[in-house]
Amino acid sequence: MRLSASLFHTALITVLLVLAGCSVTPSDDFTPIDVTNAAQAKAWELQGKIAVKTSQDKFSTNLYWLHQPKANDLRLTTVLGTTVLTLKTNQGMATLEVDGKTYRDSNAQDLLTGISGWSIPLDSLPLWITGQIGSNDKIVSYNPDGTINQLISHDSEANWVVSFLGWQQQSGALVPRLLKVERENVQIKIQTNQWTAVAAKTK
């Protein structure tokens, strides 16, 4: 089953108005660690905000993301911590939960685009969020302090322009504070309020 972008947006707004559900808290299976640079963090937790703007939709909400080498847990929440959307990936399978419905696909990007209509570079975001670049990325400019100011990421559909609008120290590493990702009629802003490098607890 596929939802149009407008129907998905309507469903998401409806859920946002319902103040019921589970609040997001950091996983008890991980413990915070300090790193000298973000690349050393094999796993991390992010708490912040995300704003998505397209030619048809405009949406802003809180963001929680637990990233691991082979798994992700990404959630959109209300200001009260109520989860309204969950996107999980694990061992090559993606699961999207929204408005009481569950959708699955082998590709998280295709799943999110197909259901919501949002074109978001999910595979590249973990790198950009931590100030790193991928094989398809070309740095356009640097800030005076040597941090990245802007890069272009080559994509078969249309290139992404990624602007790093601020940096901050988190968990001992320098990571972006505000990220803007855009192409044609799509703009995504991610504000990192708290980025925490984590390691799995030994059992």
Key phrases:
twelve-stranded antiparallel β-sheet, 3 helices, globular, single chain, mainly beta, 203 residues
Summarize the structure.
This protein is 13% helix and 49% strand. The protein is mainly β.
Explain the layout of strands and helices.
Elements: H1 5-16, E1 30-32, E2 43-53, E3 58-68, E4 71-77, E5 83-90, E6 93-98, E7 101-105, H2 108-116, H3 125-129, E8 137-142, E9 148-153, E10 160-170, E11 173-183, E12 186-200
Antiparallel strand pairs: 1-12, 2-3, 2-12, 3-4, 4-5, 5-6, 6-7, 8-9, 9-10, 10-11, 11-12
Write a structural description.
The chain is mainly beta and 203 residues long. 13% of the residues lie in helices and 49% in strands. The chain has helices at 5-16, 108-116, 125-129; strands at 30-32, 43-53, 58-68, 71-77, 83-90, 93-98, 101-105, 137-142, 148-153, 160-170, 173-183, 186-200. Strands 1, 2, 3, 4, 5, 6, 7, 8, 9, 10, 11 and 12 form a 12-stranded antiparallel beta sheet that branches. It is globular.
Query: What does the overall shape look like?
Result: globular
Let me know the number of strands: 12
Strand-pairing-aware structural class? mainly beta
Strand content is over 45%
SSE pattern: HEEEEEEEHHEEEEE
Main sheet summary? 12 strands, antiparallel
**Uncertain regions: pLDDT < 50 for 5+ in a row?**
1-25
Radius of gyration: 17 Å
Percentage of residues in helical conformation: 10-25%
Ends distance: 40 Å
Mean pLDDT: 86
Question: Counting H and I runs of at least 4 residues, what is the number of helices?
Answer: 3
